[in-house]
Amino acid sequence: MSVVQTIPAAATPADSTQREIRVNRQDSNTSSNQNRELTPLETISHGGPTLQGPPANVSFAAERLHRLNHMAAVFRHWSREGYFPQSFWTNPLGVHFGLLTASDIVLVNLDGRVIGGNRSRPANTAGFLIHAAVHEARGDVDAACHCHSPAGKAWSATGRRLDMMTQDACKFLGDAHAVYDAYGGIDCPLARPARQGCILKNHGLLTVGRTVDEAAWLFDATEHACRDQLAVEAATAGGVNGVTKALIGEEQARVNFELEADADYCYAEFQVYYDYEYQMSGGQFTK
Ligand SMILES: [Zn+2]
User: Fold this and answer.
1) What is the DSSP string of 45-75?
2) From ligand 1's centre to the CA of 258, what distance in Å?
3) When comparing pLDDT for 57 and 7, which is higher?
4) Tally of CB atoms within 10 A around 124
5) Residue 229 Cα to ligand 1 middle (Å)
6) How far, in Å, CA of 155 to CA of 281, rounded?
7) What are 133-174's pLDDT values in tens digits?
8) What is the pLDDT of residue 186?
9) Ligand 1 mean position to 148 CA, how many Å?
10) Cβ proximity of 222 and 198 under 8 Å
């Protein structure tokens, strides 16, 4: 199991590889914006201020600290969810997910060299190969989440895509997810830009995002969709008692996808878990 987030080792004025910081959409209620379409976050925010996406227009140092803290929170959330680790990427080997802090995280470049962060423990070799392949192929994402979560691992053994039968599954409509059936391979299963989730056959799940929070929220959604699919397949097996499987219609699935697979939407949704982990640890994971 592993999570990785690419974190530049140092900030320079010429650092053109850093993604652009998006502008917060805090002007949605002004008259000049009345005729434009609402963003997904504006759509779900009824009354009061609009739920916000990732922080914008912050310094490099603040962005870097934000990424590390949120990554540590994701590990603590995974531990609480029972996604127990067998392997790690930029998190070090030998530290329980539930105890991980920002200063434990190892910074490794795509050549596999440790270039910063915690140097007291190694990263995981298999995790490095998977995540390096993703980040080399997908310059549009800053984070990838992979681990051997229970339902994801079980459903992956079927080698089947997810059916569009829950809101969680609809986040992976059409090309947004794929099944990668080369067990043990290290080719990038998410090479196509539209893809944000992948079922690694006989292995586990892999999601990507522009923030670790987005990738983590999508990971939870994939895991939940796999859990639900396992339950529905079991309940409808053999047509016992006339129980059948109902799918969400194409149009409604598309509406769900366009709203709930939005990057800012996913980031904002994960903040309840970030806040929960912060409160439960007294902020320990930011150490
Ligand atoms: Zn794995």
Assistant:
1) --SSSPPP-S--S--HHHHHHHHHHHHHHHH
2) 29
3) 57
4) 22
5) 21
6) 32
7) 887 788 788 888 988 999 999 999 999 999 999 999 999 999
8) 52
9) 6
10) no
d(CA 131, CA 144): 7
- In one letter, which amino acid is 89? W
Strand-strand pairing, 2-5 and 143-147 = antiparallel
Nearest CA to 287 out of 68, 70, 103 is that of 103
DSSP-H helix ranges across 45-158: 60-81, 125-137, 150-156
Distance 127 CA to ligand 1 centre (A): 7
Which tokens sit at 52?
């916000």
- Using the mean position of ligand 1's atoms as its centre, give its distance from the Cα of residue 33 in Å: 45
Where do the structural domains in the chain lie, given as residue ranges? 2-7+54-286
> Binning pLDDT at 50, 70 and 90, where does residue 10 land?
very low
Largest separation between any pair of C-alpha atoms in the chain? 67
Q: Tell me, what's the pLDDT at 6?
A: 42
CATH number of 2-7+54-286: 3.40.225.10
Token pair 């996808």 in the structure block, residue: 257
Residue type, 97: F
Smallest Cα–Cα separation from 6: which of 100, 87, 115?
115
Q: What is the pLDDT of residues 177-233, one digit of tens each?
A: 999 887 655 566 677 777 899 999 999 999 999 899 999 999 999 999 999 999 999
Question: In the predicted model, is pLDDT for residue 285 greater than 70?
Answer: yes
What is the CA(242)–ligand 1 centre distance, in A?
Answer: 38
How is residue 73 written in tokens? 């929170």
Of residues 74, 233, 77, 244, the one with CA closest to residue 157: 233
